[in-house]
TrEMBL record:
Residues 22-85 form the UmuC domain. SUPFAM superfamilies: DNA/RNA polymerases. Its main location: nucleus. Keywords: DNA damage, DNA repair, Metal-binding, Nucleus, Transferase. Transmembrane segments: none annotated. Gene3D superfamilies: 3.30.70.270, 5' to 3' exonuclease, C-terminal subdomain, DNA polymerase, Y-family, little finger domain. One of its GO terms (biological process) is response to radiation. It comes from the Eukaryota. This is UmuC domain-containing protein. The keyword DNA repair applies. GO terms for cellular component: nucleus; replication fork; site of double-strand break.
């Protein structure tokens, strides 16, 4: 059994490495074509990739092997996780008296089920880093955001300076 687990682990590590190289090339091409920086998150699923992508914006990428998820979750507020940033996230924090994803992962399933009967399985799996939501390709962008900072002596102080 250990041989199989080692094989699976090595395969996933290789896939993450290939994905990281691919994302690095994509980010370089975006920079070359648009002069904009972007970040990237590489993980075993969409939820984790989005979570780690946000950690090093705007100019870096982050790879999170699955075995490091418990460490990541020790410092991850529940509200930072996709789908847990709104009412459900607040309800989880309030009813289960938890603040981080690691806290949530430590809650017995029965207790989660008592408070969130229809969603207990999904919440419990998410708390352990599992998410089976597929990544869906889309042709049209949903949003774009660009910003520029003007710190110190470059600070804009009048409307005329902003218009320039």
């Amino acid at each position: 059994m250990d041989i199989i687990l080692d094989f699976i682990s090595v395969n996933f590590q290789l896939r993450l490495a290939i994905a990281a190289q691919t994302i690095e090339q994509m980010r370089a091409r975006i920079r070359e074509c648009t002069q904009f920086f972007c970040s990237g998150g590489i993980a075993n699923n969409k939820m984790l990739a989005k979570l780690v992508c946000a950690r090093h914006k705007p100019r870096q990428q982050t790879v999170i092997p699955f075995e490091f998820v418990p460490t990541l979750f020790e410092e991850t507020p529940i509200g930072d996780v996709r789908m847990l940033g709104g009412k459900l996230g607040y309800a989880i924090q309030d009813r289960l008296a938890v603040g981080t994803m690691a806290d949530l992962a430590a809650i017995p399933y029965e207790m989660i089920e008592r408070h969130f009967e229809g969603q207990a399985q999904w919440i419990s799996q998410l708390a352990k880093g599992y998410d089976d939501e597929p990544v869906k390709p889309r042709n049209n962008q949903q949003s774009i955001a660009v910003s520029k900072n003007f710190p110190g002596k470059n600070a804009l102080t009048t409307v005329a300076e902003v218009r320039r």
